Amino acid sequence: MRRLAMLCAMGLALAACATSEPEPLTIAQIDVEADLTSMQSLSAVQYWQNLSSDLEAALAAEFSGQIDPGGKTVTVDVDELSLSSVYAPGATFADSRLSGRVTLLNPNETVVSAYDVTATSGDVVPYLPEGTVTVPPTSSAYYAAVVRAFARGAAETLRAGPAS
Asked: Which of 9, 10, 62, 140 has the most crowded CB, counting CB atoms within 10 A?
């Protein structure tokens, strides 16, 4: 009888220590802040007023199917949007980028994780219109592609990190 009680106690102790599946990441809110000082080129300024809403929409699309009012909040503080013309002195295609600090918050606003995310010319190709051979980094097609690439990178980074 004593052995049976010991075995039951050990079984309960092991069950309590077992790791469970991590909670799936669900999102309740997405907030993007992009101030004028984060615009690093004259070309980027023309997109500044729409950047927050465009990036929020792209992130919401990335988390489609994972939206839950009881979920976490994603915040993005845009550090830089640069859509430099390759003809600008010293500029290269790689200088055109979108970067920012992506933070995942619990519903009680405690920080779960924070990451620096950047999308550059190498990341935008899958998001350019089909059949595109070249696109100037100052174009609306490049802007849309870099926003989508940033959103994909942010979503993948958040999914790979801790969810609680």
From this structure: 62
Two tokens, residue 47: 């997109």
Residue 88, C-beta contacts closer than 8 angstroms, at least 6 positions apart: 41
Please tell me whether residue 101 adopts helix, strand or coil conformation. strand
Q: What are the pLDDT digits (tens) for 34-52?
A: 988 888 878 888 899 999 9
Residue 88 φ then ψ, to 5°: -70, 145
Distances (CA, A) of 69 to 28, 30, 59, 66, 87: 5, 12, 16, 10, 47
- Residue 120 host element (H or E): strand 111-120
